[in-house]
């Protein structure tokens, strides 16, 4: 590297003379510096000014301090006009200063470039966020493959929203999922409040076991409706998030069915230990099988809709066996509570089966394509029927529990 420091006015020395200095500087390289000799005052002045101009004040001060007093290096008063004896050392220091000033400038440029990149990135993020927030509903055919679920709903679909914030804000916008979100969202709140009230505040003759049994029902209902609300809210986030929450949604249905059957078995076969245990084990086993099936990737695909409906209907219908057993072995018609609970059981079965049928066949949008895009499509009706069925079932098991708990006769006395 050849650095040249050019100064033309040589007041004290009176002539221009070229010098070459070979030195090792702090940059780790050997430099050959071709210089012209200049006046000491001018040289010091320009060096100090150059270093102090640097915005890196610490470095500038350090560099300026490196410069010795001119009298130490250039004893002009004594030797004028002879050559200063420490000239080589002074040039070396000048080179070091130059090197350090170059480094400081490079750091400043690097810092400026980094800040410019950061600004660009934040501007890009802002623009992306603005576009995300300003999304519009789109036609079914404009959806990516992983979001295409029901082609009878023509318009009003959410596009992919790659942020959870945008997904949650979409709850307050009108699109094909709005009804699905709110139907189960409200149901979730109703069952959450009801469970907290019944298990903690309400006064009734429930023992700890009764609370655990009703707790199983409330847990199934709250988890099912909560998972469903979450799934319908974030299903448009990404294929991975959509798949994960759809699996949770199906697991929630399995838990609701299990949580509905177990309390009924407990109170229906209150004094029949073996049938109660046998049917409870059977229901729990079926629940585990359905959950394993729900975790299978293909299970959530649109083409598997009838398979899903069939699996959940069959699981729900598994309650027919203990139901038939109970009808034959108990004089259910003689007691008002037992009669009411049986009627509730029938209504619940009808509601669940109707919901599953509408869901599997996509009725009514099948007969009115494009007319039920926002409201009254099969999934919304299915959701409402699920909540109605869960409410009716709660009434049914409450009647059954009332009958058992008001009957002072112990099981041994029967
Ligand atoms: Zn749903």
Automatic annotation (TrEMBL):
Any one Gene Ontology cellular component term annotated for this protein: plasma membrane
Pfam families: HlyIII
Residues in coiled coil: none
Family statement drawn from the similarity comment of this UniProt entry: Belongs to the ADIPOR family.
Membrane topology annotation: Multi-pass membrane protein
Sorted UniProt keywords: Membrane, Metal-binding, Transmembrane, Transmembrane helix, Zinc
InterPro entries in UniProt: AdipoR/HlyIII-related
Descriptive protein name: Adiponectin receptor
Sites where the protein binds Zn(2+): 232, 379, 383
One GO MF term: metal ion binding
Subcellular location(s) of the protein: Membrane
GO BP term, example: adiponectin-activated signaling pathway
PANTHER family xrefs: ADIPONECTIN RECEPTOR PROTEIN, ADIPOR/PROGESTIN RECEPTOR-RELATED
Spans through the membrane: 181-200, 212-232, 252-270, 277-296, 308-328, 340-360, 380-397
